[in-house]
Specification:
Largest sheet: 5 strands, mixed
CATH topology of the largest domain: Ubiquitin-like (UB roll)
Radius of gyration: 23 Å
CATH architecture of the largest domain: Roll
CATH superfamily of the largest domain: Beta-grasp domain
Shape: globular
Number of helices: 17
Strand content: 15-25%
Helix content: 25-40%
Number of strands: 19
């Protein structure tokens, strides 16, 4: 079997690797093959951020920078990209990069194990801030660093480093030279024999052809879940079909009445489009894993994976989204909730791929919210996720749509509760009756994240919260509080 050559740019030089197995991770290649041990292995499942590296991709004549977890990223996925590790960002004169120097000056390192990952997330932030006139805020820095955990709880100085690094003497990436080298890799690959073990098509036609020819191949995009299967379950795949470079499926089309999100669009890109249409989704989007996971993972991958605790599906179901499945034979279009047939099972045929997610845009009279309940506020898996949308006209509920996660073997639509709301007056009495219906509609399991009784109770409570927020009630969730408000409350209780 042909293991295709992997080529990428690192430290301004072309790196060529041969005979790399399809499920070998980028972290394994860095630490074991290239002896780049500055990149650390922490959790090995994309949670802690110690393994963070930055990838660069040519986009519109510029370099697009993305901090990602190397532990759950397949090595072949960086073919044709630029790569930076913590060992690569300091200038050749021996001085430190501003991200590193700021960590030193702000005493942002304690035990030091997490520091390389923080430095790389800061490097990605530094590069993406270039050319922007507005100053970085602490809230923005917090979101960028949400995928990096410090077990010594040293977050304050690290956040101070994020704010300080922009004021240090600048260090520039020679993007013109880098773009030339990436183009050389691209041109050199033209006409080469396609890889038979790690298939990386760049067009939709090539993807559909590859899927028809290799129905047994494991489909991946950002590998944020398949990477766990490889690392934790020791799964191995003889063939991998990577959809992340298919140009058509990386697009997000803004139509008058819907967003058409390509299945290969990253979660970062997809959430940006959803938040632009419905700004109140910002907090939820920022709580979906950490930024390195969102930079790698795709909306299509999250939907196709179909985990009952995947957060995007309840939201998409509540918004009335549809999915488009494609093969060389044609395409199928269906409501998202009809896509699932059982635990991590769906209606995809062996030659089909999930191609598009179509999300209706916000309309007048709509009130929608999505609630994520987890043990940690950031970078954690939900115990319950509940998304709700109602249209209220003249005090009456014209329509209701509810998606729920963590309550059954698949993401579910709460059809009984929707019926209990539709056509009723938008009042507390209606909500109280609907709460009882919602608590009876599902029979969730108890697991390490929550008991069944807790989940049932929370479902009803979230519907009550939805009602209160629709009435403009404030200070019933963390998003409404500023740090100064919390300090004042603490002072009142002492």
């Amino acid at each position: 079997m042909n293991h295709h050559v992997i080529q990428f740019v690192r430290r301004g030089e072309l790196v060529t690797l041969r005979n790399v197995p399809p499920t070998r991770t980028l972290l394994e290649v860095l630490r074991e093959d290239l002896q780049c041990t500055g990149t650390k292995e922490g959790c090995n499942e994309g949670d802690c951020g110690a393994c963070t590296v930055v990838l660069g991709e040519a986009s519109g004549g510029q370099i697009k920078y993305s901090a990602v977890n190397s532990c759950i990223r397949m090595a072949h996925s960086v073919n044709g990209l630029a790569l930076w590790t913590v060992e690569d960002i300091a200038p050749e004169d021996g001085t430190l990069h501003p991200a590193q120097q700021a960590l030193v000056q702000c005493h942002g390192s304690q035990c030091g194990f997490c520091t390389p990952g923080f430095a790389m997330s800061l490097f990605g932030l530094y590069q993406n801030q270039q050319g922007k006139t507005e100053a970085l805020s602490r809230a923005q820095a917090t979101e960028v660093l949400s995928g990096n955990l410090c077990r010594c709880t040293g977050y304050r100085p690290i956040l101070e480093a994020a704010l300080q690094m922009q004021s240090l003497p600048p260090v520039q990436v020679n993007e013109a030279e880098l773009l030339q080298k990436l183009e050389l890799i691209k041109q050199a690959s033209i006409g080469l024999e396609p890889d038979s073990s790690y298939i990386l098509p760049t067009t939709l036609a090539a993807l559909l052809s590859a899927r028809a020819q290799h129905p047994q191949a494991q489909i991946v995009a950002g590998c944020t879940d398949v990477g766990l299967w490889v690392n934790k379950l020791h799964m191995n795949f003889a063939q991998v079909l990577d959809v992340s470079r298919v140009q058509e499926l990386r697009q997000i089309e803004d139509h008058p009445h819907e967003l058409r999100i390509g299945a290969a669009a990253t979660l970062t890109q997809a959430f940006a489009a959803l938040v632009a249409d419905r700004p109140h989704l910002h907090t939820f989007a920022a709580r979906f894993a950490g930024l390195p996971v969102r930079n790698s993972g795709t909306l299509g991958g999250n939907v196709a994976n179909g985990s009952p605790i995947g957060d995007t599906m309840p939201l998409l179901i509540a918004l009335g989204s549809r999915v488009v499945l494609m093969s060389e034979r044609g395409q199928r279009d269906m409501p998202l909730e009809d896509f699932y047939t059982g635990y991590r099972k769906n209606v995809l045929l062996s030659d089909e791929v999930l191609a598009w997610i179509k999300v209706p845009k916000a309309t007048p009279g709509e009130f929608s919210r999505v609630f994520k309940i987890s043990k940690r506020f950031e970078d954690d898996i939900s115990a319950v996720c509940l998304a709700l949308q109602v249209h209220v006209v003249a005090g009456q509920v014209v329509s209701a749509s509810i998606g729920a996660g963590g309550v059954a073997a698949t993401p579910m639509r709460a059809v009984q509760t929707e019926a209990a709301l539709t056509g009723k007056p938008w009042t507390q009495a209606t909500i109280t009756q609907a709460m009882a219906t919602l608590r009876q509609e599902f029979t969730p399991l108890s697991d390490l994240r929550a008991s069944a009784n807790y989940r049932v109770q929370v479902l009803g409570n979230l519907l009550q919260r939805f009602w209160l927020e629709s009435q403009g009630v404030k200070n019933i969730n963390l998003e409404d509080f500023e740090l100064s408000d919390l300090d004042a409350l603490e002072g009142q209780n002492t």
